[in-house]
Amino acid sequence: MCHVIVTCRSMLWTLLSIVVAFAELIAFMSADWLIGKAKPSSSEDVDNRTGASQEPYHPTLGIYGRCTRISHMQLSRRDTLCGPYAENFNEIASGFWQATAIFLAVGIMILCAVAFVSVFTMCVQSIMKKSIFNVCGLLQGIAGLFLILGLILYPAGWGCQKAISYCGHYASAYKLGDCSLGWAFYTAIGGTILTFICAVFSAQAEIATSSDKVQEEIEEGKNLICLL
After folding, report:
1. What is the pTM of this model?
2. pLDDT in tens, 128-157
3. Engineered SS bond to 30: which of 10, 24, 124, 184, CB 3.0-4.6 Å?
């Protein structure tokens, strides 16, 4: 018989697992890993209504995408265009970034799988006498290791020609040059830290759903069990 078991610790672990998976996925897809040096406004960058020059803009560069400003030849305005600069995996700017993409993609796939499974832990707490929480916690720890490897390798690619075009000639491996780190990089780091927190907290979720109080509720014949 299926028993729906909801506790504060199990629900918190489920929510954190979902948040971490989405945060890492959004960071990976974003182009805001590196913020390039400011591009000065040209004589064409003039606001038609005020006549004032527009502020310099900062192009951004991600693992496989970028955001830059494009001009319209027939219209006196410019728009920011974001999209992948690499049409396939081999066109990613650096071998280090290719490795980063692989490690992050594997880690994110594991996190997304765990997030999906975590939703069903309210009904199914074990498979083949093994706790789903413990298995998911182990997978989250493995995913965290993949994410760490990806984040360590990413700065090694700052010396590639693509990064130099955004960050100036002083850019090199582990040296930003004229660039600064964007929110996507910090989000990936924060998500990695939370991944290990989730891995540790999964044990608490397992303890909460197999406590004596839960067993007492099951013995009383209750199918829906909610505990603090």
Report:
1. 0.84
2. 778 888 999 999 999 999 999 999 999 999
3. 184
